[in-house]
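--- STAGE predict ---
source: upstream dedup step, 1 unique chain passed
mode: sequence only
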Amino acid sequence: MLAAENKKKKLSGFSSVWLSSWSLPCCKSGFSSSSTVEKEPTNEKLSKNCSESANKKPGGWKSMPFILGNETFERLAAFGLFANFMVYLTREFHLDQVYASNILNIWSGITNFFPLIGAFISDAYVGRFRTIAVASFFSLLGMTVVTLTAWLPELHPPSCTTQQRILNQCVRASTSHLGALLMGLISLSIGSAGIRPCSIPFGVDQFDRTTDEGNKGIKSFFNWYYTTFTVVLLLTQTLIVYIQDSVSWKIGFAIPTVCMLCSIIMFFIGTKVYVYVKPEGSIFSGIAQVLVAAYRKRKLKLPSEKQVDGIFYDPPLYGTAVLSKLPFTNQFGVLNKAALVMEGELNPDGSRVNQWKLASIQQVEEVKCLARIFPIWAAGIIGLTSMAQQGTFTISQAQKMDRHLGPKFQIPPGSIGIISFITIGLWVPFYDRVLVPALRRITKHEGGITLLQRIGIGMVFSILSMVAAAMVEKVRRDSANTNPNPEGIAPMSILWLAPQLILMGLCEAFNIIGQIEFFNVQFPEHMRSVANALFSCSFAGASYVSTILVTIVHHTTRTHSHPDWLTNDINAGRLDYFYYLIAGMGVLNLIYFLYVAQRYHYKGSIDLQDRAQDVEVELGSKGELDYYSARFEDSK
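--- STAGE serialize ---
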């Protein structure tokens, strides 16, 4: 899952919609819970409020060298430490590939889930700067501990010769060795919980989005952010991995750790020029309020007529120049009870007495957005499970193949994943500049194809990738067994793994970018932090599914005459069967996805022209779009 996790971040850079999800104005709140009837503030007032909340003029590009320097060194540290970690666990800690795979998948799942907690703490309590600062020290602590496991003889098992490895006589890592390693991984997960959800928003906070100059600065910031990210990715997948694999694990781990220290230094040097936006409350609190209020009123009956005024709590929204207001719908009607106004629930000024007993229609409809998208999100978990294998069993395959590129140079196993990166880098510009315009002329759709179609195509490539991986593995295993040698290396070039990696790169270019854009487009603007949290949780779910699947296969496929499919000696196992199993699951998941996708209604939108203000109303379905469009025409 490690390789998949790294690519997830890279792919985010190709989605402009994803970028906007982090570009929230500094004064924008989570759920719209206010009941005030004040008139919508103008851009001038909004800018003033933003400045007051920041308490100083936006830092702009004066703060960018420190923020970009911090993020560049932090990414170089994180990716450099773990780009080749599967090899480290099997070669230096002498762990079985199943055990090593489960460690990586569980750690990846935790690391992808923890940012939800970090985002909540940052938004609701401590703010982004403090969250990043504390998390950075946890990351440095974790990296130092992991580096020490390679540096100190007491923290890793004794080295093993090639002959001992062949005879399976290597001393496996003890409980204390694994304890030290896991302590480092947990510290890194805590660090990721604070850095990942806050780094981009903290950079956006430095610009004033109410001005053209600020918006241009944000776009430029994203360009530089992902440019440095690409450079870091190439360095870690090539130079750092080569040092770890061919020179020294000590040096290979020490370099990223020193980079993390430099990251912290760069971050604190810029403290005098940063903009510090105060925590404004988390959107997750609003979700919880709706669920609690609906549960408390579960025994109440909803009125039969679709009337809002006087029955449901529907205060006017304010605080932004363009509002995103969702209409009242009957879908998931049980949640509507949360907005039912009961006696004693409103103050004389129209505000709520208790936010945990009464929610607004806007809050309720935002939770419904989450409920509508959930089936699509669930389908994405299995679709991403195939990616989890790139950082684990694909590396195991690479270790048992001819890695020579010329007479002297050998490709490190951990660097083979760069083929997927190259595929993405070549395909996405071609798709965006050539294929989409051609498809647009045929389908008359702005994106060439719908987002759900794009996700479905990515799932097909995911299945094909696993089929290709299984076919190549069978040829590789047969070649190794036909031409036996002490190390079990098949006389077959490592580049035979290219087909499955190219197909996986296409899967990511369609599926992952499609999911990022889909989640962000189908949520209101201020809920897009939830959209990105959902996407992160998809990878966490895929990691856990992979762990469960590996464990079940490992314990159920062993017979008296044959080892299990995922035995440590892959030449004696049937890794190809495991790949076919994932492909089969992918086919079933694709059928489920097609079922729920056909029943999904894209959120439409119309612009209502008011004399006082322009209000953008986002609708929950195409049917609702037609209904409200007709009402608007009748009102003219």
